[in-house]
Predict the 3D structure of the following.
Amino acid sequence: DTEVTQTPKHLVMGMTNKKSLKCEQHMGHRAMYWYKQKAKKPPELMFVYSYEKLSINESVPSRFSPECPNSSLLNLHLHALQPEDSALYLCASSRTPGLDNEQFFGPGTRLTVL
Amino acid sequence: QKEVEQNSGPLSVPEGAIASLNCTYSDRGSQSFFWYRQYSGKSPELIMFIYSNGDKEDGRFTAQLNKASQYVSLLIRDSQPSDSATYLCAVNGYGNKLVFGAGTILRVKS
Protein backbone atom coordinates (compact mmCIF):
# COMPACT_ATOMS: atom_id res chain seq x y z
CA ASP A 1 0.00 0.00 0.00
CA THR A 2 1.69 3.17 -1.21
CA GLU A 3 -1.20 5.52 -0.71
CA VAL A 4 -2.02 8.49 1.46
CA THR A 5 -5.76 8.96 1.83
CA GLN A 6 -7.61 12.10 2.87
CA THR A 7 -11.22 12.72 3.84
CA PRO A 8 -13.36 14.49 2.99
CA LYS A 9 -12.55 15.36 -0.63
CA HIS A 10 -14.56 18.56 -0.42
CA LEU A 11 -15.69 20.61 2.57
CA VAL A 12 -17.80 23.74 2.75
CA MET A 13 -18.06 25.41 6.14
CA GLY A 14 -19.19 28.62 7.68
CA MET A 15 -16.96 30.84 9.74
CA THR A 16 -18.53 29.66 13.00
CA ASN A 17 -18.30 25.94 12.23
CA LYS A 18 -15.91 23.36 13.65
CA LYS A 19 -14.75 20.65 11.29
CA SER A 20 -11.86 18.22 10.94
CA LEU A 21 -9.76 16.94 8.07
CA LYS A 22 -8.41 13.42 8.24
CA CYS A 23 -5.32 11.85 6.71
CA GLU A 24 -4.23 8.23 6.84
CA GLN A 25 -1.26 6.24 5.58
CA HIS A 26 -0.33 2.59 6.02
CA MET A 27 3.20 2.70 4.62
CA GLY A 28 4.86 2.72 8.03
CA HIS A 29 5.97 6.29 7.48
CA ARG A 30 7.00 8.15 10.63
CA ALA A 31 6.75 11.72 9.36
CA MET A 32 3.50 13.37 8.31
CA TYR A 33 2.85 16.85 7.02
CA TRP A 34 0.04 19.33 6.43
CA TYR A 35 0.32 21.76 3.53
CA LYS A 36 -1.98 24.49 2.27
CA GLN A 37 -2.15 25.27 -1.43
CA LYS A 38 -3.86 28.25 -2.97
CA ALA A 39 -4.70 28.37 -6.68
CA LYS A 40 -1.67 28.73 -8.96
CA LYS A 41 0.71 28.70 -5.98
CA PRO A 42 3.02 25.98 -4.66
CA PRO A 43 2.17 24.08 -1.48
CA GLU A 44 2.98 25.92 1.76
CA LEU A 45 4.09 23.88 4.75
CA MET A 46 1.89 24.23 7.83
CA PHE A 47 2.87 21.47 10.26
CA VAL A 48 5.27 18.54 10.53
CA TYR A 49 4.82 15.54 12.80
CA SER A 50 7.86 13.43 13.44
CA TYR A 51 7.34 10.12 15.27
CA GLU A 52 3.90 11.37 16.33
CA LYS A 53 5.32 14.55 17.87
CA LEU A 54 4.76 18.03 16.46
CA SER A 55 8.18 19.14 15.25
CA ILE A 56 7.41 22.12 13.02
CA ASN A 57 4.64 24.71 13.20
CA GLU A 58 5.08 27.32 10.51
CA SER A 59 3.45 30.09 12.58
CA VAL A 60 0.02 28.85 11.61
CA PRO A 61 -2.97 30.65 13.22
CA SER A 62 -4.49 28.85 16.19
CA ARG A 63 -7.75 28.34 14.31
CA PHE A 64 -5.88 25.41 12.74
CA SER A 65 -5.11 22.68 15.26
CA PRO A 66 -3.23 19.54 14.23
CA GLU A 67 -3.40 16.19 15.97
CA CYS A 68 -1.55 12.93 15.44
CA PRO A 69 -3.44 10.17 17.31
CA ASN A 70 -1.07 7.43 16.10
CA SER A 71 1.61 6.76 13.52
CA SER A 72 -0.92 6.23 10.72
CA LEU A 73 -3.35 9.08 11.33
CA LEU A 74 -3.14 12.83 11.11
CA ASN A 75 -5.99 15.23 11.75
CA LEU A 76 -6.41 18.93 11.21
CA HIS A 77 -9.10 20.53 13.34
CA LEU A 78 -10.64 23.71 11.98
CA HIS A 79 -12.47 26.36 13.97
CA ALA A 80 -13.57 29.93 13.23
CA LEU A 81 -11.94 29.98 9.81
CA GLN A 82 -11.91 32.96 7.51
CA PRO A 83 -12.84 33.03 3.80
CA GLU A 84 -9.14 33.51 2.96
CA ASP A 85 -8.49 30.06 4.43
CA SER A 86 -10.26 28.53 1.45
CA ALA A 87 -7.66 26.35 -0.28
CA LEU A 88 -6.58 22.81 -1.07
CA TYR A 89 -5.27 21.16 2.09
CA LEU A 90 -2.72 18.49 1.41
CA CYS A 91 -1.42 15.78 3.67
CA ALA A 92 1.91 14.11 2.93
CA SER A 93 4.04 11.45 4.54
CA SER A 94 7.65 10.31 4.33
CA ARG A 95 9.52 7.31 5.70
CA THR A 96 11.34 9.49 8.23
CA PRO A 97 11.77 13.27 8.52
CA GLY A 98 15.33 13.08 7.22
CA LEU A 99 16.72 15.14 4.40
CA ASP A 100 16.61 12.40 1.82
CA ASN A 101 13.13 11.08 2.33
CA GLU A 102 10.62 11.54 -0.41
CA GLN A 103 7.25 12.96 0.55
CA PHE A 104 4.11 11.40 -0.89
CA PHE A 105 0.98 13.48 -1.07
CA GLY A 106 -2.64 12.52 -0.56
CA PRO A 107 -5.34 13.74 -2.95
CA GLY A 108 -6.18 16.73 -0.76
CA THR A 109 -9.29 18.25 0.74
CA ARG A 110 -10.70 21.25 -1.09
CA LEU A 111 -11.99 23.59 1.60
CA THR A 112 -14.37 26.47 1.01
CA VAL A 113 -15.11 28.86 3.88
CA LEU A 114 -18.24 30.94 3.44
CA GLN B 1 16.16 36.19 -3.67
CA LYS B 2 13.66 33.36 -3.58
CA GLU B 3 14.92 30.10 -2.15
CA VAL B 4 13.85 28.00 -5.13
CA GLU B 5 13.27 29.60 -8.51
CA GLN B 6 11.60 28.25 -11.60
CA ASN B 7 10.49 29.86 -14.82
CA SER B 8 6.69 29.96 -14.56
CA GLY B 9 6.24 29.31 -18.28
CA PRO B 10 4.18 28.17 -19.98
CA LEU B 11 6.76 26.06 -21.75
CA SER B 12 5.27 24.77 -24.98
CA VAL B 13 6.81 21.83 -26.81
CA PRO B 14 5.52 19.70 -29.68
CA GLU B 15 4.63 16.08 -29.10
CA GLY B 16 7.69 13.86 -29.28
CA ALA B 17 10.14 16.63 -28.40
CA ILE B 18 12.34 16.95 -25.32
CA ALA B 19 11.01 19.24 -22.60
CA SER B 20 13.66 20.84 -20.40
CA LEU B 21 12.63 22.26 -17.04
CA ASN B 22 15.06 24.16 -14.86
CA CYS B 23 15.29 25.11 -11.22
CA THR B 24 17.84 27.06 -9.18
CA TYR B 25 18.16 27.16 -5.42
CA SER B 26 19.87 29.48 -2.99
CA ASP B 27 20.81 27.27 -0.03
CA ARG B 28 24.22 25.71 -0.71
CA GLY B 29 23.58 23.24 2.12
CA SER B 30 20.61 21.64 0.32
CA GLN B 31 21.13 17.94 -0.12
CA SER B 32 18.05 16.47 -1.74
CA PHE B 33 16.01 17.56 -4.70
CA PHE B 34 12.63 16.49 -5.96
CA TRP B 35 10.43 16.97 -8.99
CA TYR B 36 6.67 16.78 -8.60
CA ARG B 37 4.07 16.82 -11.35
CA GLN B 38 0.72 18.41 -10.59
CA TYR B 39 -2.27 18.21 -12.88
CA SER B 40 -4.89 20.92 -12.57
CA GLY B 41 -7.10 20.30 -9.55
CA LYS B 42 -5.00 17.34 -8.36
CA SER B 43 -2.31 16.88 -5.74
CA PRO B 44 1.44 16.82 -6.47
CA GLU B 45 2.87 13.49 -7.60
CA LEU B 46 6.52 12.66 -7.02
CA ILE B 47 8.19 11.75 -10.30
CA MET B 48 11.92 12.07 -9.62
CA PHE B 49 14.37 12.65 -6.81
CA ILE B 50 18.12 13.14 -6.92
CA TYR B 51 20.76 13.50 -4.22
CA SER B 52 24.10 13.29 -6.05
CA ASN B 53 25.68 15.42 -8.74
CA GLY B 54 25.11 14.13 -12.23
CA ASP B 55 22.22 12.52 -14.05
CA LYS B 56 19.54 10.14 -12.90
CA GLU B 57 17.31 8.47 -15.45
CA ASP B 58 13.91 6.84 -14.97
CA GLY B 59 12.08 5.94 -18.15
CA ARG B 60 11.46 9.10 -20.16
CA PHE B 61 12.57 11.32 -17.28
CA THR B 62 16.11 12.44 -16.48
CA ALA B 63 16.98 14.59 -13.48
CA GLN B 64 20.25 16.50 -13.55
CA LEU B 65 21.92 18.03 -10.51
CA ASN B 66 24.82 20.47 -10.39
CA LYS B 67 25.48 21.49 -6.80
CA ALA B 68 28.35 23.82 -7.69
CA SER B 69 26.05 25.87 -9.89
CA GLN B 70 23.04 25.27 -7.63
CA TYR B 71 20.69 24.09 -10.30
CA VAL B 72 18.62 21.03 -10.91
CA SER B 73 16.80 20.21 -14.12
CA LEU B 74 14.28 17.73 -15.43
CA LEU B 75 14.31 16.45 -18.99
CA ILE B 76 11.26 14.74 -20.42
CA ARG B 77 11.99 12.80 -23.59
CA ASP B 78 9.35 11.97 -26.19
CA SER B 79 6.92 14.40 -24.58
CA GLN B 80 3.27 13.41 -24.69
CA PRO B 81 0.11 15.53 -24.32
CA SER B 82 -0.46 13.68 -21.04
CA ASP B 83 2.74 15.30 -19.72
CA SER B 84 1.00 18.68 -19.81
CA ALA B 85 0.95 19.78 -16.17
CA THR B 86 2.68 22.03 -13.69
CA TYR B 87 6.10 20.76 -12.62
CA LEU B 88 7.21 21.71 -9.13
CA CYS B 89 10.84 21.67 -8.10
CA ALA B 90 11.34 21.06 -4.37
CA VAL B 91 14.48 21.28 -2.29
CA ASN B 92 14.96 19.81 1.17
CA GLY B 93 16.86 22.37 3.13
CA TYR B 94 17.22 23.89 6.55
CA GLY B 95 15.04 22.31 9.21
CA ASN B 96 14.20 19.34 6.99
CA LYS B 97 11.55 21.42 5.29
CA LEU B 98 10.63 20.91 1.67
CA VAL B 99 10.76 24.26 -0.12
CA PHE B 100 8.88 24.43 -3.41
CA GLY B 101 9.48 26.58 -6.42
CA ALA B 102 6.49 28.34 -7.97
CA GLY B 103 6.25 25.67 -10.67
CA THR B 104 6.62 25.60 -14.44
CA ILE B 105 3.57 25.03 -16.62
CA LEU B 106 4.34 22.58 -19.43
CA ARG B 107 2.12 22.30 -22.48
CA VAL B 108 2.73 19.52 -24.96
CA LYS B 109 0.97 20.15 -28.26
CA SER B 110 -0.12 17.28 -30.50
Summary: The longest strand of chain A covers residues 18-25. Chain A is about 0% helix and 55% strand. The two ends of chain A are 36 Å apart (CA to CA).
